[in-house]
Amino acid sequence: MTTLQLGIDLGTTNSLIAQFIDGETKLIPNRLGHFLTPSVVSMTEDGTILVGLAARERLSTAPGHTAAAFKRFMGTDKRFHLGNQQFRAEELSALILKSLKEDAEAYLQEEVRDVVITVPAYFNAIQRQATQQAAQMAGLNVLRLLNEPTAAGLAYNLQEKPDNTRFLIYDLGGGTFDVSILDYFDGVVQVSASAGDNHLGGEDFLQALKHCFLQRCTELSKSDIEKLNLQKDIWQPLEIAKRQLSQESEVDISINFEGKEYKTRITREDFQQASSVLFSRLRQPLERALRDARLNPEQIDGIILVGGATRMPMISRSIVQLFKKIPQLGVNPDEAIARGAAIQAALIFRNQHLDEVILTDVMPFS
Ligand code: ADP
Ligand code: MG
User: Fold this and answer.
1) Which of 50, 53, 148, 284 is paired with 66 by a 20 to 30 Å CA distance?
2) Active site residue 224
3) What pLDDT shows up at residue 224?
4) The pTM is what?
């Protein structure tokens, strides 16, 4: 029996697990058949723990028993209340990891133990240690903690590029924005600059879409709007509409509120206008990363988009404007990190299908 070569992207919004097998990466579906498991934990009235989509749905129906976006608090003393029980961020992360482990075991029909887990490049020693502890609580052995941008680089075969290749990793997830510049030289990938905004992501674009909808939906009175609850009444239709707008130039959004249906058409143009402040905020970390690495946009060899929110066409457009280069495509942006982590696991086991580079991930930050 060969050793399983597995990588986990433990994300703020979604987590996933991938396997390197037969010379390529494959995502492992969870018990629902989905590749993405929402990083949400909920406790039911009878004390049962729910993880993933079932928990995500309870963010609206049982917010006091449900926790999300806890990755931001890894290694802190913050306590999350799920009913009358308290959890630390690493305990909640452990529940996510355990769920991924169990689902992968059911799918692979094998015990899952050794994994590569990714962390943001800016995670400090305490946050990394908290991630290790979460893995331990979940019964996993961490082969290596890998920086997320490095994982994205591996998913795009940075390890097979000529020396001195420079990639810019543009990662816009649900609630965080990270820009990293990777340098590849002599078998070593180095994060040479990293900048970001810890409170900027797809959720903010959802808020922008909400404002846009409320402005246009004139049938809703001011007092209705005050009573509307984003999670409960409109999260679902807005989230669907936001994704549709990545494909189509206009969508109809309809919500049910107090027994009545409210419907409005929103164009991509409207959405883009409502998001203009967010676009200027996306610009700053890019400029900072380039400045810190002392590079001009022309000196970047490839731009890699990571994170589900980069599926919005306006993101690639803004990158083309700045870099005069089309971002690399080929790997789904919300899957790249997990796939790269699985490649790292394969490199650790010196998989015969990959170059025998000893890949090191160097972090210049403490
Ligand atoms: P994280 O890194 O935070 O765990 P992901 O990379 O999974 O998160 O990204 C989640 C975000 O991506 C969510 O805000 C979601 O709405 C957004 N997203 C996913 N698919 C699309 C799409 N097709 N169009 C626009 N946004 C999308
Ligand atoms: Mg992510």
Assistant:
1) 148
2) no
3) 86
4) 0.95
Q: Please report where in the chains the tokens 């979604």 appear, as a residue.
A: 14
Which has the closest alpha carbon to 31: 91, 107, 145? Answer: 107
Instruction: Give the whole-number percent of the chain exceeding pLDDT 70.
Output: 95
* CB atoms inside a 10 Å sphere around CB 194: 25
Fold of domain 6-149+335-359: Nucleotidyltransferase; domain 5 (3.30.420)
Q: Which long-range contacts (CB under 8 A, 24 or more apart) does 255-263 make?
A: 255/213, 257/220, 257/224, 257/228, 257/233, 258/224, 258/227, 262/217, 262/219, 262/220, 263/217
Q: With 0-12 CB in 10 A as exposed, 13-18 as middle and 19+ as buried, what is 216? A: middle
DSSP label at residue 122? T
| Among the listed residues 354, 310, 303, the one whose alpha carbon sits nearest the alpha carbon of residue 25 | 354
Distance 170 CA to ligand 2 centre (A): 11
Nearest alpha carbon, ligand 1 atom 24: 243
Structural class in CATH, domain 161-199+283-323: alpha beta
